[in-house]
Amino acid sequence: AFLGYEPYDKVGYNSGNSRNGSYSRQFETKYGTVQLSIPRDRNGNFSPALLPAYGRRDDHLEEMVIKLYQTGVTTREISDIIERMYGHHYSPATISNISKATQENVATFHERSLEANYSVLFLDGTYLPLRRGTVSKECIHIALGITPEGQKAVLGYEIAPNENNASWSTLLDKLQNQGIQQVSLVVTDGFKGLEQIISQAYPLAKQQRCLIHISRNLASKVKRADRAVILEQFKTIYRAENLEMAVQALENFIAEWKPKYRKVMESLENTDNLLTFYQFTYQIWHSIYSTNLIESLNKEIKRQ
Predict the structure, then answer these.
(1) Per UniProt, which keywords does this protein have (predicted)?
(2) What pTM does this model have?
């Protein structure tokens, strides 16, 4: 099919290219080593569509190496594990090279161009065990964006020992350098100082506090006997039919519980950007009053 004619067909005479035997190649998979016979042509143009050029192992094995490396297993230990599990011998140098290739992919990710405009930007920090000589949990500051067409993607991330505003500022600076000029709404969990950093980077962007985080905070500060009722009443605030009804529900909620939980309700009164999402089309309200979208991503990352 590649040459366009069958073996010994006269059509191939003087065509400029012809079959030239085959060569052997080993390909390592999670099922064992496969011995392959790869056809050759005189001009050296043919390459198998199902096998990567010069590749000697499938993606599953590389993913296994990377995951083991990230959890702190040494290159020599990884080599032994792969050999025991799959019968392949990878030298520590090969393990190191696989990890370096991953680092190059990461650099490409951080340098790629992004869209100029995003409808929603979700910012959230999550802790993962990372390998830097030793293994310890560090904070991954993650930005997830949704385009006006509804396409969502991880835009960037920044790693630090703990969540901090310097890392958030660095991440937003990088996103600007990658091309993001305008954001309509930024949804966050209310990390102290983050709202000011967002305003500096994108002064025209509206901001929304994650109401699920607010709800969890309420649950942790009220008595167990009141918890179910309070949380159910709080839901009426972000499930109202419009902004006016939401404002009224918030006022009623605070008025009812302030005598018993004064500090908690005063804190709620002083919290900005609780109901910003009502300014957007109602079809997306349930997606933008919390950071649940990016938290789902974080859970998937941890599961991997």
Answers:
(1) DNA recombination, DNA-binding, Transposable element, Transposition
(2) 0.70
